[in-house]
Amino acid sequence: LIHCLIMNTIKAVKNAIVCLVLLPRFLMAAVMFWLLDFLCIRKRVFFRMEQEGDAIDPPLCISDSNRLFSVESLKAVWHGHKLDFLKAAHLGHGAPNTEVVQLGDQRRSRILDYAKEKRPLILNFGSFVQQNADIADSIVVYIEEAHPSDGWMSTDAPYQIPKHQCLEDRLNAAQLMHLEVPGCQVVVDSMENSSSAAYGAFFDRLYILQEGRIVYQGDRGPEGYRISELRDWLSHYRQRMEKPSDLVIHV
Ligand SMILES: *[C@@H]1O[C@H](CO)[C@@H](O)[C@H](O)[C@H]1NC(C)=O
């Protein structure tokens, strides 16, 4: 009984610490959302981001009719921050080898099964695909929906998909996506959402793995989902191919 009590206390303390650490950034995000619901501010902020950003990156587009500040959106933001904070994936460290399910034959496999010897493996927890087949392999890992039709609904989402209740729902939803990215291996996260948790991948995120390690870790999406960083990493890599001692390339 005492052992149980101690374990519960440790768990409660850990939760409290996580909440305390996350609270300031969550409140910042909430204020930002509230401000962005004033359309004049939203237009200005997005215009500025577009000016400063790289043209290759997917633009943040939110139509005027979509409100950002809501219970569902804040819940999703909290969830994303929490996953990011507790993720196991860190630059330069071993890549979590979580279980995924292959689209098509529904075979269970693991992330690192897709890595081929020394070739970089792009781990894409998003839907913008850039082909780099000459020097890298890539897989799209479809995780929980960022904008489920029964959660933080968005009319800007290409499809209206409810929260996945079972693996079949998730596979069906991924199937829709697969049609959009022909020629790219698509896998789905397990229903325990273990890849999303290990990589802090919600809403979307980019990674590059090589020889079992994380050699590029993008920021939390959508703001941090930058195809331009991926492109830069790969072009550096292409240049340094003759010097295989470089394991981590900072961009
Ligand atoms: C995984 O995500 C789905 C939403 O797609 C959710 O319904 C489910 O409860 C999550 N599973 C766990 C173990 O948190």
TrEMBL record:
What is this protein called in UniProt? Iodothyronine deiodinase
Give the residue range of the signal peptide: none
Keyword set includes Coiled coil: no
Record keywords: Membrane, Oxidoreductase, Selenocysteine, Thyroid hormones biosynthesis, Transmembrane, Transmembrane helix
**Single Gene Ontology BP annotation:** thyroid hormone metabolic process
Q: Which gene encodes it?
A: DIO3
One GO molecular-function entry = thyroxine 5'-deiodinase activity
What this chain does, per the entry, is described as: Responsible for the deiodination of T4 (3,5,3',5'-tetraiodothyronine).
> What family, per the record?
Belongs to the iodothyronine deiodinase family.
What residue ranges are annotated as transmembrane?
15-39
Report the PANTHER family cross-referenced here.
IODOTHYRONINE DEIODINASE
Pfam families named in the record: T4_deiodinase
